[in-house]
Amino acid sequence: MELSRCSRGMILIAVVLAFYAFFFDTSAAVIASGGLAAFLIARGFLVVSALRSTAGSLSVNRSLSNRFIRQGSLLGVTTRIAVSLPPTFSLACSDAIPAGSALSGGNSSGVPEENGSCIFSYTLTPLTIGDHSFSGVTLTVSDLFFSASLIIRVAGATVPLFTVLPSADYALTGTDTYGEAESLAITPVMSQVIRSFRKYVPGDDFRTIDWKLSAKYDTLWVREYMGRMEVADLFIFDLPDAGTLFDQEAFARLKNTAAASVATRFRSSRPFSILLISGPNLVSFLPGEADPMKFIAMMDRLTPVPRLHHLTRYQSVAALRKRYAEPASQAGPFAGHLSRITDSFLSRRSPLSFETQLARIFHGIRVSSAHLFSLATQDQSHLRLIVEQGAMESMTVHLHIPKECYGPAVRSTLGRYGFSSVEVV
Amino acid sequence: MTPDERAFVMLCAGEAFVVLGGMVSLPAAFILQFLLPILIFRDLFTPVRNGMMLCLAYGGGLFIVLAAGLSFRHMFLPLLLLSAIVVLAVFTLLLGETRLRRRYGGPV
User: How far is CA B81 from each of CA A355, B65, B85, rounded to the nearest angstrom?
Assistant: First the structure.
């Protein structure tokens, strides 16, 4: 139970009056002090009583868009809550999301209407595989003096269960937490080995459907293969500028894609690194991260940030040298002047702090591939710098960009930067 | 000034009147102290059932305070007694809240 500002003030008055009564032997001050304490205590008991009756009248009806979903995909949740609240109190409800999931959109908390009902519609991104249940419903009863919260986890407030399936085929990446490792079966014909069969889930590749098994059981079954796949060791999130307008829907979709990619990476026992930037501004760097809780906390930080530094068609010294190398090498007075001019200013030009930071990070972690998630709005010079610095460390950079942001002009610009692949999400 | 702040200022002023009135007549101070929260926070007493319960609990508590104040010449013992009652009441409140959490908390 928490005290409000008003009740804290009343307690202060009661204490002052009690001291006054003690030092001056005034009965009236005792009555005033004790009266305030009696009033607050009586009201406190009523708040607890109201919380008890409200919790007893609670009914929760929760529905999911799908009971079986893929890791990192979106799960729609609609929760209908009905309570009866005694008068003179106010009530706030919130739906506690399951452990290992992140809130992607919508609102999971609110205030009931006059008739005591409220509906929450929101979307979750499950990050851990397996069966999950909801963490319950939180009720907060408050009045002018007190506020008391109660998490209700009794049956009915935590259902329904849902199952999160792995987002991709199983990878043979070292040992698990128990020290066990998967190995390919010894076979004269080397091919992908079937790990298991499971029921079809919308979104599965049709090529993985096992038609024989599906015909036998009259329902679609898909094969899950074992095989090696590339695992990214560095995730770079380019956050949009808080001071400019950007496509919110595209950014939300990019966040979901990033969450799914990182969630997939969590299945590997090897740690990976996360780099948050906003244009040419380094926001945060998590080297060698393997703690899911830190990742969930980091996902909450994927919000627009104000950019302190901006670039406009910036090119690094190496890029400029490469650009002017060919015309300056030709014969003639123009090439000679060009060579002198470029040499004079490029020799004195120091790299940006962003370039230095990237070089230090890439050199320190020494990874083979990185995934970059960006809206690529405004100037894209920082993306070019990432590719260039990555190339110096023999690192391939894969770009993920929303389709709204990948227009012809951006496509042409990014095409020259040398990304290993561009995925439009 | 918000309505809450105004109510709080009125309560402070009212308590000063209670103390001043108590120097003249203790029953008057008792009645004034009883009426003060009812007048200032009248919305809390408007619903019949809750208002009656709050009135009874508050009146009972105030009567104990008055009895303690009148029973002793010096105020040290009444204050000690009242402090013990307050501590006991706070523990009872916390116990009630903990029982609620255990009842509705379910398996974690």
Answer: 71, 9, 6
Q: Which residues of A touch B70 (CB under 8 A)?
A: 27
Angle (nearest 5°) at CA B28 between B25 and B32? 140
Percent of chain A as helix, strand, coil, to the nearest 5: 35, 30, 35
Q: Which tokens in the block code for residue A64?
A: 């999911």
Asked whether this complex has an ipTM greater than 0.90, the answer is no
Q: Are residues A95 and A201 in the same domain?
A: no
When pLDDT is averaged across residues A309-324 and rounded to a whole number, the result is 85
At A265 the three-state DSSP class reads helix
The answer, for B71 touching chain A at a CB cutoff of 8 Å, is no
Mean pLDDT of A189-208: 77
Question: Which residues, numbered 18 to 37 in chain B, qualify as contacts with chain A under a Cβ-Cβ cut-off of 8 Å?
Answer: 18-23, 26, 29-30, 33-34, 36-37
Q: Is residue A217 part of a domain?
A: yes
Could you tell me if residue A343 is inside a domain?
Answer: no
Q: Which residues of A touch B41 (CB under 8 A)?
A: 144
* Interval B51-95: pLDDT, tens: 777 788 888 888 888 887 777 778 888 888 889 999 999 999 999
